Amino acid sequence: MPLTHGVEPLASLTRPPVGKILTLGQRGNDLFRGESHTNARRIYGGQTLGQALVAAGRTVERDHNPHSLHGHFIHPGRSDLPVDYIVERVRDGGSFTTRLVRALQNDRTILLATASFQRDEDGLTHQDTATTPAPVPENLPRFEDSLDASDPGDAQWLSQLMSNVGVEFRFPEEYPRLANRRGRRLPPRQRAWIRTPSRIGDESLLHAAGFAYCSDLFLLSSALPPHARHIDTPGLKLASLDHTVWLHAPFRADEWHLYEQHGYWMGGGRGIGRGRLYNRNGTLMASTMQEGLLRFR
């Protein structure tokens, strides 16, 4: 039975195939092409981040693994057109390798990214951050099962999200969007267990790119709860401006990790969100930062 009239049943929806999205075609020396494999009007930002990292990694020696990705979203992309990734070999060093990637669609730049890779080495280690315990994802309901089936706004939003973004997520606490829709103000924090819904192979580059793909989900919206607003609030214009991913250790993006997000600043029509990704043992695996447009008319 559908959630609401005019909304496709969630049980019949399939998320986009992330492994296929991250599989790029090579069209020349340091030139790669990616596809969206969705019916969305615009390209999900995490797609270009993940594809840009794969394109950069295909030009790097296999003993160098990605440790940082910095992207600037220049223009929105269309999902019905392919994206070409031009890689510039900025530096090839013994320890570090740097690449500049330009994502083009119809000769228009939609993303500029730099990616850095490092040869594995030992060193001092610590983490000055921790997460609070959360129920394991296997004991949490799927997010689509936790919504009120009588609310057409939430049903429509989730239907579009599941059709266009290949990320599975489960919230250990109530997702702030739901409280914001009731007019309740909350601290600018949220967290969810996330993973890609299908396996994406064993190559470490693809898992780093898989998290880059996932990392764009919800991050900017973490700045909205103190204002009792959400991403579908009438009059809101939301767009990612820049996005950074730091990878601290290899991990599988198709396994559950707890993604904590903190929207610690908002002003001037912009907001900043910070993310931290933990494994089940509480080890910090990756960090993210994103600035975006949050303009209300």
TrEMBL record:
Family named by the database record: Belongs to the C/M/P thioester hydrolase family.
Hydrolase listed as a keyword: yes
Name by which UniProt lists this protein: Acyl-CoA thioesterase
Pfam families linked to this entry: 4HBT_3, Acyl_CoA_thio
InterPro entries, sorted: Acyl-CoA_hotdog, Acyl_CoA_thio, HotDog_dom_sf, TesB_ACOT8-like_N, TesB_C
The Acyl-CoA thioesterase 2 C-terminal domain, residue ranges: 176-293
Lineage, highest ranks first: Bacteria, Bacillati, Actinomycetota, Actinomycetes, Mycobacteriales
Keywords, comma-separated and alphabetical: Hydrolase
